[in-house]
Amino acid sequence: MLLNRRWDAIVVGAGPNGLAAAVTIAQAGKSVLVLEAQATPGGGSRTAESTLPGFRHDVCSAVHPLGVASPVFRRLGISDAVEWVYPEVELAHPLDGGHAGALYRSIDATAAGLGRDGVSWQNLFTPLVSDLPRLTPLLLGPFRLPRHPIAAARFGLRALRSVRGLAHAHFQDDTARALFAGMAAHAMLRLEQPASAAFGLVLGAFAHAVGWPVARGGSQAIIDALTTKLREHGGEIVLNQPVVSLDDLPESRVVLLDVTPRQALAIGARRFPAYYRRQLGRFRYGPGVCKVDWALSAPVPWQAPAARKAITLHLGGTLDEISRAEIEVHHGHIPEQPYVLISQPTIYDATRAPAGRHTLWAYCHVPAHADEDMSERIEAQIERFAPGFRERILARNVLTAIDMQEYNANYIGGDINGGIQDLRQVFTRPTPRRTPYITGAKGIYLCSSSTPPGGGVHGMCGYHAARLALRDLR
Ligand SMILES: Cc1cc2nc3c(=O)[nH]c(=O)nc-3n(C[C@H](O)[C@H](O)[C@H](O)COP(=O)(O)OP(=O)(O)OC[C@H]3O[C@@H](n4cnc5c(N)ncnc54)[C@H](O)[C@@H]3O)c2cc1C
Question: What is the bridge-based pairing of β-strands 7-12 and 32-35?
Answer without folding.
Answer: parallel
